[in-house]
Amino acid sequence: MESRTRTHPNAPDAPPLAFPLPAAARHAGISIRTLRYAIARGEIAVHRPSSRPVVLATDLQAWLEGAPADRAAAPRRPATGRAA
After folding, report:
1. What number of CA atoms fall less than 13 Å from residue 50's CA on the CB side?
2. pLDDT of 77
3. Which pLDDT does position 73 carry in this prediction?
4. What is the pLDDT along the chain (84 residues), one digit of tens a residue?
5. What is the 3 state secondary structure string of the chain?
6. How many domains does the chain have?
7. Which domain holds residue 31?
8. 13, 41, 12, 38: which is closest to 25 by C-alpha?
9. How far apart, in Å, are the Cα atoms of 60 and each of 13, 14, 52, 69?
């Protein structure tokens, strides 16, 4: 019979469930300002289990997955201006 072991969610090698805002920004590779703007727009929920606000890792991941993949891939408008 196989022995099943479960990792406790707070084990040292388990991924974090939530991040304080500065750590969430670093983890996502964005500035704290960008994170705060996304929160202000209601794109990312903030939880306050204590006096420090946190962002759930799942919410941060969902927001990142919903972001545009590459702005350079967007269709470009034709240049307007002087005719050659």
Report:
1. 4
2. 65
3. 53
4. 454 555 556 667 788 999 999 999 999 999 999 999 999 999 999 999 999 999 999 999 999 999 776 655 555 666 666 655
5. CCCCCCCCCCCCCCCCCEEEHHHHHHHHCCCHHHHHHHHHCCCCCCECCCCCCEEEHHHHHHHHHHCCCCHHHCCCCCCCCCCC
6. 1
7. 18-65
8. 38
9. 20, 17, 17, 15
Taking the C-alpha atoms of residue 47 and residue 51, their distance in angstroms, rounded to an integer, is 10
In a domain, 54, yes or no: yes
* CA–CA separation, 32 and 14 (whole Å): 24
Sequence-separated (6 or more) residues with CB below 8 Å from residue 53: 20, 21, 46, 47
The token duo for 64 is 């990142």
The amino acid occupying position 26 is R
9: its two tokens? 């969610």
Report the predicted TM-score, pTM, of the whole model to 2 decimal places: 0.65
Helices 57-66 and 21-28, interaxial angle, to 10°? Answer: 40
